[in-house]
Amino acid sequence: MLQPTSSNGAVVLDQPGTPLVRLQSTPKKAAAVLFDEQYEVLKHLGNGSYSQVKQVTHRSQGGTFAAKLVEKQVLSKTDRVALSQEVLILSRMDHPNVMRLHEVLEDESKCIMIIECLDGGDLFDRVTQKGKLADAEAQGVMAALVEAVFYCHSHCILHRDIKPENILMSSAGIKLCDFGFAKQLNSVHERATDSCGTPGYAAPEVLNGRSYGFEVDVFSLGVVL
């Protein structure tokens, strides 16, 4: 993790239940300007609907990261809430099988998430290019995913979009990523009702907006298997 520093607008928190990473709100300097000052872009990795992903290195501390640059102006109110929820959830996560968020630079127009850069692609591409996994490898992938999901559930977090595209494979291990549909519950007894997820992997009650809990992530794990 990047070493916390007292830069402009930085908030550094490490108590349990609070963000473990540096969240920078940038009222005096644009997030894009801070990003250019602190990071050097190595190459472009891809585009999302409202974002770009670039491989970067920190100019003073080194290391290779992925930077997800989100244009907030084009997001709907619902999408902005989901983005804020994703940032908050990831900032509190600390598990070897969950993608690590290192830093966030944010202002009114942009949200720039600095995340770990992984070298192995996702499970969907792996299966598409090389066919099904050998039994031993599949067991290892599922064991890592069960650990990641158990960690999320123990912190009252529903992922709600477990699928091969959101499972990253690398020399650092198996990583669950993309918490864009994740939801923080107030207790293990709370139920969700909002509809989201990916058809084909999401449990029927998630797609239909019926009451559901942690069991829907277990359903998605079963589909992946």
Automatic annotation (TrEMBL):
Domain of life: Eukaryota
Reaction catalysed by this enzyme: L-threonyl-[protein] + ATP = O-phospho-L-threonyl-[protein] + ADP + H(+); L-seryl-[protein] + ATP = O-phospho-L-seryl-[protein] + ADP + H(+)
Cofactor: Mg(2+)
Binding positions for ATP per the UniProt entry: K68
InterPro entries: Kinase-like_dom_sf, Prot_kinase_dom, Protein_kinase_ATP_BS, Ser/Thr_kinase_AS
SUPFAM superfamilies to which the protein is assigned, alphabetical: Protein kinase-like (PK-like) (SSF56112)
Every Protein kinase domain range: 39-225
Keyword terms: ATP-binding, Calcium, Kinase, Metal-binding, Nucleotide-binding, Repeat, Serine/threonine-protein kinase, Transferase
Keyword ATP-binding found: yes
Top EC class for this record: transferase
Keyword Phosphoprotein in annotation: no
Gene Ontology MF term list: ATP binding; metal ion binding; protein serine/threonine kinase activity
Entry-linked PROSITE patterns: PROTEIN_KINASE_ATP, PROTEIN_KINASE_DOM, PROTEIN_KINASE_ST
EC identifiers of the protein: 2.7.11.1
Family: Belongs to the protein kinase superfamily. Ser/Thr protein kinase family. CDPK subfamily.
Protein name: non-specific serine/threonine protein kinase
The organism of origin for this protein: Aphanomyces astaci (Crayfish plague agent)
